UniProtKB/TrEMBL annotation:
This is Helicase-like protein. The lineage of its organism: Bacteria, Bacillati, Bacillota, Clostridia, Eubacteriales. Keywords: ATP-binding, Coiled coil, Helicase, Hydrolase, Nucleotide-binding. Residues 12-205 form the Helicase C-terminal domain. CDD domains: SF2_C_Ski2 (cd18795).
Amino acid sequence: MALVNNAMCVGVIESIQDHLPALYFVFSRGRTELLAEELSREWDFLLPGEKSRVSEMMERAEQITPGLFGGRRKHLRRLLLQGIGYHHAGLSPALKELVENLYEARLIFVLFCTETFAVGINFPAASTVFDSTRKWDGRNHRGLLNREFFQMAGRAGRRGFDKVGHVYINIDEKFPEQTGFFDESQVEPVRGRLVISPNTALSLLHWKTDEEIERYLSQNLAVYQNNREIASLAGELETVEEKIYTLRKNFCQDKDGPSCPMLREKLKKELNRLRNRRRRHKPEVPGRIAEIKSILAQPAKGCFHHGCRDAHDEITALVERKKELVRRNRQLKKYAVDYHQEFRRMCDLLEKLGFIEGKTLLPRGLFALHVHVQEILVTELVFSGILRDAAPAEAAAILAGIDYQPGRDEVVLPGEYNMDNAALLRNKLLDAGVPEHLCVWSPLPGPLAEAWYKGATFEELQKRCNLHEGDIFSIIRREIDVLRQVERAAGEDRSFKQAVHDIRNVLDRDEVAVLI
């Protein structure tokens, strides 16, 4: 592992040019593109024959997906012909596949990518480079966890090509803590996490007995891990206390008495501090100085006190460890989730909204049983008549906003429908006590789904907004999945089921077609 002191990417690549190809991890989509463009001004890695192979692969990809390099991706064609690429979630699936194929064919020497490239894709490199070891996690900037770092760093080293893998970290002088490096032995364990969603509660009530529900709530992985860690902490705490008790037996009877060399050494240091010019004028200082002098005037014990000193130092370290164990134990107990209480709260909410009566699922509950995203909101959009009464294009626009949280600077040109009725319904649900995370909806992507339903091309969708093409794909494909769930939930309501099926069929076309 090597450090690079806040260097530009051109300088970094120049320093590691003997250890390419490299995956250059960046924690911003825009920055992957910026750094790739910066590097392309100075470097061209491909020979003429390699450029021809890249051109052929790009042409084949464009034959399958016309307009692949349209819009903001025009410059990517030039980058790829220089052996430079970038990869992030904002790219279209076809473009991501092309970049991956070029990298796998060893025709990309430096790939700027976000951390998603390190998950589920087996593309090793000779080197991995970290643009930073700080990332935005949705709430604030923080350092990488050990497991995050090693997930990415582990891409360095190609079996059969490299004896060792090289990892480089670009250190920003503003954040010197980045030099506190990662320890593979301290990789954070994967934690179980059970979320009692409306669908979870409905499924338990509908399919499970009381005994099975109890077992599910009290014996899941999250509870097991939490209880095991609490028990482990209690065991270690007991061991620490026993060690402290045993070590204290090493002290002689004069410990902390006037003749104890350790106490006298401590008092001499205190005396020097009290004689400091800034302290000597404090009213309590003269009395304390006199007290220390009277103690030091008494005869000292003639011993080397090595045993006492060693025991004292070890006890000090153990006391600090004990404090950490107690703090961790309190934290675990404080944040331990009472899944029984969470389940009761969800059942109370569902009963209040008319989804259940006791353990019995009412029509709303039976519908939501087949919905797995924003169950309450989707169900109410159907049962309120908003979706049933809407024109197909309007229904497509409304459902596009399900579970969508727009970015701060995202812009989409308005469509024909204002979707105020959906916004009003959402506000009523919030007023009724439905938590905000169970009512996630935005009108912003609606005009894109509306235009796509009406036959717009993907290129026209791109002109209607400033979203990445990958995000547009995600919006339409996520809606197709929601429509499939609603269609399944419609059950015997044949007319509504057919209407939902027809909307899904219109959306599921061309570039965004979902192949299952």
